[in-house]
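Course exercise 7: structure representation. Students receive a sequence record and must write out the corresponding structure in token form. The form below is the worked example handed out in class, using PB1 domain-containing protein (117 residues). Read each field label carefully; the graders check that inputs and outputs are placed in the correct fields and that the protein name is recorded exactly as given.

STUDENT ID: A-19
EXERCISE PROTEIN: PB1 domain-containing protein
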Amino acid sequence: MAAQALLLHVHVSTDIVRKLTLIPRPELVDELKDIIKEKFKLDCDFSLSYEEPDFDGQLCSLVDIEELPQKAVVKLVRPENDDSSVASDDTIILPHAMTPDRVERWPQDFPIPTFFL
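STUDENT ANSWER:
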């Protein structure tokens, strides 16, 4: 019997979304978290939520890997350790992972055009 693949649409942060295909499927949530940390070079703690198809795509905390559909949208949620944080529950604050679109830094100097009135 062939190993079952797991196809994930991973929201690493609010502006970074990556595709991840895993063969074989991880057996534990912690194993999946370790794979995501390694693949996207993350060094922070996070939990995972997924869009539950039985509830019209509402987010559910991932506590049992068996709950995760074979093809799923997964969001990384960083715990709020700072009581003074103003972040809301739907705000994901993670360090930016390097992506192919983000390999160059902004230039040090920006030319500013002169406007005439």
